[in-house]
Amino acid sequence: MSLIPRSSMFDIDRFFGDNWPRSADREMGEFFAPRVDIREASDHFEITAELPGIDRDNIHVHVNDGILTLEAESSQEDKEEKDGTVIRQERRYGKFMRSFNLGGDVQEEDIKAMFKDGVLTLKAPKVAEKIPQKRRIEIE
Which CATH number fits domain 2-125: 3.40.50.300, 3.30.70.660, 3.30.1780.10, 2.60.40.790? Predict the structure, then answer.
């Protein structure tokens, strides 16, 4: 399993952040790619991604041609009114996508996902290693 790194040319968030000045207004609506942790156990890989403020229904995880993709969309609004006049209004809209190359050592059909307290956890079981079996071949 390999992570497509954040510093790759496909990292839109970093490309725009490094090449154009940022303003507080722009940051509220930009594409983002959250950091993830990948751990390897003896029988599975575990991927965790922090997704604070994102509703479970706005998270999509899918596998296609050996690529595991996490996608999510966030839309939050905070609005303060005083005597019917808007004093402050802040919005945060954003999308993210992270992709992982599973390689040939993951059971794609058995990947499980859990979402609790803003953290998405994926468990990708490894393919069981086949032990070569010895068999006798009869001579005719």
Answer: 2.60.40.790
Specify the 3-state DSSP secondary structure of 13: helix
Please answer whether residues 111 and 124 qualify as being in contact, where contact means their C-beta atoms are separated by less than 8 angstroms. Answer: yes
Q: Rounded to a whole number, what is the largest CA-CA distance in the chain?
A: 98
- Cα 96 to chain centroid distance, Å, stands at 8
pTM for the complete prediction? 0.63
| 3: β partners | 100
Mind listing the pLDDT tens digit for each residue in 65-107?
Answer: 889 999 988 776 666 666 777 666 666 667 888 888 888 888 8
Q: How far apart are CA 130 and CA 2, in angstroms?
A: 22
Domain boundaries, the chain: 2-125
Do 49 and 70 contact (CB within 8 A), yes or no? Answer: yes
